[in-house]
Amino acid sequence: MSFQLDQFLPYRLSIAAAEISSRFAARYAAEAGLSIPEWRVLAHLGHSGAVSVRDITQRVHLDKSVVSRAASRLQEAGYVAKSGHGKDRRLIVLQLTSQGEELMKRLAHVADGFQMDLLALLGEDAQAFKAGLTRLLERSDW
Amino acid sequence: MSFQLDQFLPYRLSIAAAEISSRFAARYAAEAGLSIPEWRVLAHLGHSGAVSVRDITQRVHLDKSVVSRAASRLQEAGYVAKSGHGKDRRLIVLQLTSQGEELMKRLAHVADGFQMDLLALLGEDAQAFKAGLTRLLERSDW
DNA sequence: TTCATAACGTTGCAAGTGCAACGGAGTCAA
DNA sequence: TTGACTCCGTTGCACTTGCAACGTTATGAA
Predict the structure, then answer these.
(1) How far is B15 from A130, CA to CA, in rounded Å?
(2) Which of A55, A69, A125, B64 supports an S-S bond with B132, CB 3.0-4.6 Å?
(3) What is the pLDDT of residue A120?
(4) How many CB pairs under 8 A join A and B?
(5) What is the predicted pLDDT for the residue at B71?
(6) How many Å does it take to go from CA A53 to C1' D19?
(7) Nearest CA among A70, A65, A26, A25 for reference residue A44
(8) Buried b (16+ CB within 10 A) or exposed e, B123-132
(9) Residues of B whose CB is below 8 A from A121
């Protein structure tokens, strides 16, 4: 029996992730015209409060150039405000505007609903699936 | 409690998949200088035998332009042979060369080893994780 | 047969990404 | 204080991708 790509775990994981990301992306694209990096930056800012580009870069797994450009677009759209850091003037402090907060509140609902659909789909495998995901993410040092 | 991106299932899935794909891609890039689309095309051909670009496109979740270009690069590298289809002259039949078969044999070993590492990492969650993945992939009609 | 329609693989092109380089700013030892 | 080094966010650039054409070939109804 030869190697079967469609039984290969990394391949299946990759397809499933792409599929789900794309479906969810369609929802927030319809809601607010956001791209994936923009969604991630917005979502992180919603939880973190005021932070620098570097902080976001480290936490949302995006290159700093991507975060920089996403932040600029979010600023243009009025969802994010940029300001200087008082002590370290290399840093730029990003923060949601009230409009951004409002959008994030709506998107959090959308996201929660989406995740509930997903968990329902996983059914009895949901807990172990989440646990497995955690194992994969923790062992980031191979 | 506000929305937390790093607890959001689609996000975690996406990061884990990207991480694992990238680690595995590094292995076959080192072994044979292949890109992800090239690996997928090669792997599919190894199992399917002679098929058209369209067949591959449908099965490996890549745009036909990506498959077309990957196939051309694989042909240049001597791993794949293109030939015309006898009955339908729109079709191009792709097939591994003996060199391609040999490479695929080696890569199948690498892939199997990688998957075993992955399953070991998942431990007791492995079965349910695979089952969950199957559920996600089956329900592709939302 | 003829002609409109669809399917095949390739190619052109706009958009996004990752990497490297940049100017500006902070740090720390000499 | 100076000067070498590091870090910040932005920008330029090469590369890949997804989509829409295109030429060629097959299909099917009139």
Answers:
(1) 13
(2) A125
(3) 96
(4) 161
(5) 98
(6) 32
(7) A70
(8) eebbebbbbb
(9) 135-136, 139
Tokens encoding A117: 């659909």
Q: Which residue of B has its CA nearest to A21?
A: B10
Q: What is the pLDDT of residue A140?
A: 53
Distances (CA, A) of B100 to A43, A82, B73: 45, 53, 12
User: Among candidates B57, B98, B59, B63, which has minimal Cα distance to B80?
Assistant: B98
The span from the CA of B37 to the CA of B88, in Å, is: 26
pLDDT band at B140 (very low <50, low <70, confident <90, very high): low
Domains (ranges, CATH) in chain A? 9-135 (1.10.10.10)
- What phi, psi does A90 have (nearest 5°)? -80, -25
Given this model, what pLDDT does residue B136 score? Answer: 95
Residues A124, B131: contact at Cβ < 8 Å? no
Q: Output the pLDDT for position A128.
A: 97
Nearest to B95 by CA among B79, B106, B72, B77: B79
In angstroms, the separation between the Cα of residue A2 and the nearest Cα of chain B is: 6
Would you tell me the crossing angle of helices A9-32 and B126-138 to the nearest 10 degrees?
50
pLDDT, averaged per 10 consecutive residues of chain A (142 residues), comes to: 93 97 96 96 97 97 98 98 93 97 97 96 96 88 51
Interface contact flag, A130 B9, Cβ < 8 Å: yes
- B61's tokens: 């979740």
